[in-house]
Amino acid sequence: MTLRQLLRSSVAAAVIAGTLAPSGYAAPPPPAARASLDVRVAQAADFSRIEFHWSGGAKLVSHREGQTLVLRFNRDANPDLSTLKIAPPRWLKAAEARHINGALEIVITLTDDADARLGNADGVDFVNLFARPGAPPASQTPAPAAPIGRPNPMPAGGVVKVGFDREDQQVTLSFDWAAPAGAAVFRRGEAVWIVFDTPARLDISKLPSSSVRYSKIQALKGPDYTALRIVTQAGTPYVAVGQGGSWKISLGPGTQETPDVIKVARDESVQPATLSATVSGVTKPVWVADPAVGDKLMVAPALGPSKGLPSRRDYVEMALLQSAQGLAAEAYASDLVVQASGDLLRIGRPKGLILSPISANTPPEEAAAGAPQPMSMPALIDLDTWPKTGSGGFLARYNALQGAVAAAPEGEGKDSDRAARMALARFLVGSQMSFEAIGVLNAAGRKHQTLLGDAEFRGLRGVAKVFAGRLNEADADFSSPVLADDPSSALWRGYISAKQGQWADARAKFAGGGRALDLFPPIWRARFLHAQAQAALGVGDVTGAMQWVTKALDTPKVPVEDQLDIRLTQARIFEAKGEKVRARRMFEAIAKAPYDRIATPAMLHATELGYAKGQISAQKAAEVLNQLRYRWRGDGVELEVIRSLGRLYIDQGRYREALEVLRSAGRQLPDRPEAVALQNDLSNTFRQLFLQGLADGMQPVQAVGLFYDFQDLTPIGADGDQMVRNLVRRLVDVDLLDDAAKLLKYQVDNRLNGVPKAQVATDLAWIYLMNKKPEDALDAINATRTTILPPALNVERRLATARALMGLGRFDDALELIDRDASRDGQEIRAEIAWKQHTWPTAGALYERSLGDRFKTPGALSPGDEARLLRSAVAYSLADDDKSLARLRQRWSGFVDNASNPDGLRVALQGMNVESLSASDFSRVTADNEAFNGWIGRMKDRFRTGQPAGSPARAGK
Fold it and tell me: CA 956, CA 947: separation in Å to the nearest integer?
């Protein structure tokens, strides 16, 4: 039996097919010029799109017969429809091209449930395929009628685009109408509402979904109104400004205009009992559905300028809501009736509202005298006189002041209940009973809405909220326009900013309070001076910080705890000046204090300085910092401890622990600079690990596990994609192909769109092919088709598709797909298909052709070339082509001795009778796994470039 007879046997053929791996793979060549017609396919969730790109343009005429759509162009071409035939997009059944009298016809057959629509965009004809609608289109809603007696505010097209602007901490939304429109702006629960009396559609597509002043914004529309529901933090100030057809609504502290007060009273001119409100320019009452509560609000929009209700008013059957413009009410009774007549709005019920009788306003006798008096500035406090109780003690003084409120007549005079309430609040603030003072002031504000525009009320309530630790609420009070020019309020605003770590803002605000500093009690003078020192240190002004600290320490009658707090800042100033030894001695002394809020940061800085000097080991420093994490929590000190511990773990190479401890802070105090710096540390650590190679020393499996545990830190964009490619490269190098595919698939399914998605999907397809999963590779390519891909990427995707089809045994489809591809890659795929189809003469010739003139160049063959030579020789033997086999032997015998498998090559080239071969010689011909793993090796080289599919850096790999 001859060698070629033995090779023809089915067992030998199976052995060869199973042991010889695919040939090497080269990068695609530069793309050839397009044909006169380029057919592109894209797939979306709700439709498929086929585009026809002509060189020079062409006119299209179409006609349809049932589910067959015929597209006739006035030019002829030879388009490539292989993609439409082999992997048709959704709703396409078949496609073919016909050439008739110098014109081209493309016949598209739709599926039974499909419909089609033709169009032209930017000179490109296209066909959209989609599911046939199952129901007739909804009837059009008639346009709303114009308001009677004034111009119609409805703009052309019925859409009002909402503008967005931010200045410092204030967010402003703007609405431009065709004519003056009625508006209402009010708060209900967590949301601020903006309601207009014209049912236009509010376009909020350009607005951020959340901002510094709101977390959610929702557009609503009814038959006679349109509205925005904006979820904001409690206490967020809001103001409305209307001029002509423009409305601007601002959220947050800043420049604000005080609206006119809407007066609400019992209407004595009508029966039964009714409330009347004077609302200038009121247009009409509307009922607005609240999706959060499930009920309906009564809203009365009005034309500008703004007027509102300063505080909430509760009644038996309803509640009037606080508003900056217009009027709004929660209705508890189902038969509430609202009527607008001129500038008067009447609210009632068929049987009347339940209201107090008119005689209830008769004032009682005047209250006792001697109440705490206001200070010269609205935000000043008197800690000496205000809390005095007299000989009767605290309870007697408290009961007397509280009784004065009940005994005083309603009104706004010096002997009214309003004055008595303010006196009680001063007593409670002076007694450091902040929460009780807040309750009294809130009740006074509800009772007397005009108090919200009173400077002392705002200042006193702001002070009480600072004492209670409600800094954001206090800032809202101190930011009221009525306190804008008040020096005493400026000091409180600066103090709040310093407590929140907003150093630059604090310095700017403190600058306006110098005239009031000496009017405060000593303890608060020292605290304001200390806060100014912290702000100066925070912006790097070490000299200024030391001056403020010195003034604070010179202030008399400062408690020991405050003195230690000031000394802590002084130690930090020494540290900033480079006096490390002196600073550390001070930190260690302060760390022994019995006040955890002061001792904790002192111990933190002492430990950091000791570790930096090498006087404390990394292990000891980590133990101390880990204990400090739980000693004091809830402010910037905790965040500083976590940052320091995270950096220490990174220095030790304990990357997982570093990420875990940095992430443990969550999103606490997001506005503080320490929180911003901590999040930056967390992000930078993740970048150093997976973008800058810090994780390269870890085992691939460990690196992937770490990445999965913290993948929410992956940045959006090119850096995040590069991280994934770096990990994929390492996984491919060690043949962890399933893990590599999982990473890329997550990117494709969740993070990417357009060209980047197609690039990553192409890499995913190659990995599936390396892992012998051609069906998954084909799905990855087909699911990311689009018409906007670069030519080089399209070529690579076509080659990957052809290899996937070959792996599925669809040889004819694969050949059709690369029919016009004259590149080396296309030739190698055709050669492998010929090998798999046992077309031996073709396979031998293609493999020999792929070697080119390599035989003219001395030197050892590469594994890929050696594999091609071996397959060519075996194919010629099976084809009984002795002449070709002799040619191979003549050209390539000189390379046998230096080959990696010299015995196998020698046996394949000699063409001897099998009788002269031993069993070991035959195994050398058929056991060439190493040489035919060349394709896998070439693919690994591609991934080692770290570049996306279709990029020039992968060329030649």
Answer: 13
Q: What is the DSSP string of 244-300?
A: TTEEEEEESSSS-PPPEEPEEEE-TTSSS--EEEE-TTB---EEEE-TTTSSEEEEE
C-alpha 272/C-alpha 102 separation (Å) is 89
* Confidence band for 692, pLDDT divided at 50, 70 and 90: confident
294: left (phi over 0), alpha (psi -120 to 50) or beta: left
Task: State the average pLDDT over residues 125-150.
Answer: 63
How much is the CA Rg of the chain, to the nearest whole Å? 41
Q: Are 515 and 377 in contact (CB under 8 A)?
A: no
CA 371 – CA 390 distance, rounded (Å): 12
Token digits of residue 233:
């933090």
Q: How far apart are CA 770 and CA 935, in angstroms?
A: 9
Residue carrying the six token digits 């100033």: 573
* 310: confidence class by pLDDT, cuts 50, 70, 90: confident
In whole angstroms, what is the distance from residue 690 CA to residue 771 CA?
25
Over range 653-682, report the average pLDDT. 78
Q: Distances from the Cα of 405 to the Cαs of 102, 408, 924, in angstroms?
A: 100, 5, 108
The rounded distance, in Å, linking the Cα atoms of 941 and 954 is 9
Helices within 771-894 (DSSP H only) = 774-782, 791-807, 811-817, 824-836, 840-851, 863-878, 882-892
CB 378 within 8 A of CB 488: yes
Alpha carbons within 13 A on the beta-carbon side of 892: 29
Q: What is the mean pLDDT of residues 722-726?
A: 84
| Three-state SS sequence of 27-82 | CCCCCCCCCCEEEEEEECCCCEEEEEEECCCCCEEEEEECCEEEEEECCCCCCCCH
Residue 643 has pLDDT above 80, yes or no: yes
Q: What is the pLDDT of residue 702?
A: 86
Q: Model-level pTM?
A: 0.50
Dump pLDDT digits (tens) for 141-186. Answer: 444 555 656 788 999 889 999 999 888 888 999 999 999 999 999 9
Closest CA to 502 of 636, 687, 375: 636
What are 650's two structure tokens?
Answer: 């990174």
For the segment 359-375, the average pLDDT, to the nearest whole number, is 53
Q: Is 390 helix (H, G, I), strand (E, B) or coil?
A: coil
For the beta carbon of residue 880, count every other beta carbon within 10 angstroms. 14
How many residues are there in the chain?
957
Nearest Cα to Cα of residue 658 among 642, 672, 635 = 642
Find the mean pLDDT for residues 107-117: 91
pLDDT in tens, 48-58: 889 888 887 88
- Cα separation, 366 vs 165, in Å, equals 51
* CB neighbour list of residue 544: distance below 8 Å, 6 or more residues apart: 533, 536
- pLDDT digit string, tens, across residues 445-491: 999 999 999 999 999 999 999 999 999 999 999 999 999 999 999 99
CA atoms within 13 A on the CB side of 103: 13
Contact between 379 and 479 under an 8 Å Cβ cutoff? The reply is no
Chain centroid offset of residue 610 CA: 40
What would the DSSP string read from start to end of 629-695?
A: TTTS-SSHHHHHHHHHHHHHHHHTT-HHHHHHHHHTTTTSSTTSHHHHHHHHHHHHHHHHHHTSSGG
Are 926 and 15 within 8 A, CB to CB? yes
3-class SS of residue 591: coil
- The answer to whether residues 861 and 854 touch, using CB atoms and an 8 Å cutoff, is yes
pLDDT digits (tens, 9 = 90+) for 884-893: 888 988 888 8
- Residues 629 and 657: their CA atoms lie apart, in Å, by 14
